[in-house]
Specification:
- The chain is α+β, with helices and mostly antiparallel strands and 272 residues long.
- It has one domain (3-258): Alpha-Beta Complex (Creatine Amidinohydrolase).
- The chain has helices at residues 12-35, 42-55, 130-147, 154-167; strands at 59-60, 78-82, 85-87, 101-110, 113-122, 171-172, 178-180, 187-191, 211-214, 217-219, 225-227, 235-237, 243-245, 248-253, 256-259.
- It has a five-stranded antiparallel beta sheet with strand order 8-7-9-14-15, sandwiched between helices. Strands 1, 2, 4 and 5 form a four-stranded antiparallel beta sheet that branches.
């Protein structure tokens, strides 16, 4: 059924190649997060990411991507989204300040296979409920990892993520979702972080060999978002409340979830 929908299942060899890409992504995120301090610019963070990816022999997946909404192709290796910016923030001369939060999203292709992950970090000290926003969004991703298992429907995982987020007083973004990933950054299926009956046609079974990028996007205020400038890249919360974004590339194996962007060298679970 998945293959009829255009989903490409991955072999054990392909999953390990994706893990290679995922390790580079994780190294970039860890390095950039350590540099996200008051006074740093998002452009400087991107320059360090581009250097790191080039040294690793990788291809920056985001650079050159086109968007029908945008006036130009995406110019950077990272998406750097600050505070009310949810995703697709363009690095530049923005200076980070204490109390900001920064979402860092990175995609890399190595040996023909992709890895994609994101973190949101605090710049200096941040107040409540901002700290809780980061904690809950990360917990939602961890919950998805715990729940992913062969035979489970994605709707069960998405519904549990949504319940955790909304029980904590936050809202789940509807307009942007996760995705399949492999040789291309964006493959089928679409992977929502919330669930309702209107989405029943998007549901899918988790089977060994399926690899997905799971990326909860959570707002302090309303779930509604919009494009934030005339360039057509950065997406912001409609009420300008803070937003957080965490992401992992995850393979489904006979034993459960295998996170390919956590920096591990080899799988600890059974492969396919």
């Amino acid at each position: 059924m998945l293959q009829r929908r255009g989903v490409i299942l991955k072999s054990a060899r392909e999953i390990e190649l994706m893990r290679d890409a995922g390790r580079v992504v994780r190294s970039v995120l860890d390095r950039v997060a350590s540099l996200a301090v008051p006074g740093a610019t998002t452009g400087a963070l991107n320059a360090e990411a581009e250097r790191f990816i080039a040294d690793a022999g990788g291809e920056a997946l985001f650079k050159g991507v086109e968007n029908p909404q945008a006036r130009y192709a995406f110019p950077a290796a990272l998406c750097t989204s600050v505070n009310e910016e949810l995703v697709h923030g363009v690095p530049g001369d923005r200076v980070l300040a204490a109390g900001d939060i920064l979402s860092i999203d990175c995609g890399v292709r190595i040996s023909g296979y992709c890895g994609d992950a994101a973190v949101t970090v605090a710049v200096g000290e941040t107040p409540e409920p901002v700290n809780r926003l980061l904690d809950v969004t990360k917990q939602a991703l961890e919950l998805a990892v715990d729940l992913i298992a062969p035979g489970r429907m994605w709707s069960e995982v998405a519904g549990a993520m949504q319940a955790l987020i909304e029980r904590s007083g936050f809202s789940v973004v509807r307009d942007f979702v996760g995705h399949g990933i492999g040789r291309e950054m964006h493959e089928e299926p679409k992977v929502p972080n919330f669930w309702n009956e209107k989405q029943s046609r998007l549901d899918f079974e988790l089977v060994p060999g399926l690899v997905v990028a799971v990326e909860p996007m959570v707002n302090i205020g309303s779930h509604q978002v919009e494009y934030g400038d005339r360039d057509g890249w950065v997406v912001v919360t409609k009420d300008r409340s803070f937003a957080a974004h965490f992401e992992h590339t995850i393979a489904v194996t006979p034993s459960g979830a295998d996170v390919l962007t956590d920096g591990r060298v080899r799988s600890k679970v059974s492969s396919v």
